[in-house]
Amino acid sequence: MIGYVTLGTNDLAANAPFYDAIAKEMGVGRMMDFDTFIAWGAWDGGAGIGLTQPFDGNAATVGNGVMVALQAKDPDHVQRIYDTALANGGSDEGAPGPRGEPDEQGNTFYAGYFRDREGNKLNAFCMVRDD
User: Fold this and answer.
1) Where is this region: Disordered (predicted)?
2) What's 77's domain CATH number?
């Protein structure tokens, strides 16, 4: 199981509000807050997300092919997280909607994709039952 995911930043103070807003929409807040690192989540909850200035002192860069997926409650929650991201400096990478065909149980992957202010790719997703 994944405990948390960390993304790099070159300006923690400028980018933290983006994650504060998304965390609030997801019902959590900051659980660790240091000069060069902030983590959002709940100590007794699922995986958290961290934003950090690189320890080696080099510039933070976007990982090509790297994406963090945030589990939403339902399609409306996906939309709210996506809208929150865009309203807080994020950019669109694919509006919320179903992706692919339903699986054998009739579940469809539903997601909205966005990037943070530094270009890190994220999505909000849920599984939707096609009844």
Assistant:
1) 87-107
2) 3.10.180.10
Q: Of 18, 21, 17, 23, which Cα lies nearest the Cα of 4?
A: 23
Please write the tens of the pLDDT for every residue from 84-126.
999 999 999 999 999 989 899 999 999 999 999 999 999 999 9
Is position 76 within any domain? Answer: yes
Question: Based on C-alpha coordinates, what's the Rg of the chain?
Answer: 15
β-pairing verdict for 29-33 and 107-115:
unpaired
Q: Is residue 60 part of a domain?
A: no
Say if residues 112 and 127 touch (Cβ distance below 8 Å).
no
Q: How far apart are CA 112 and CA 7, in angstroms?
A: 19
For residue 84, what are the domain limits?
A: 4-53+66-129
Domain tally for the chain?
1
- Cβ–Cβ under 8 Å, residues 9 and 39: no
Pairing mode, if any, of strands 37-41 and 29-33? antiparallel
Q: 101 lies in a domain?
A: yes
Which of 108, 114, 113, 104 minimizes the C-alpha distance to 126?
A: 108
The whole-number average pLDDT for the span 6-26 is 97
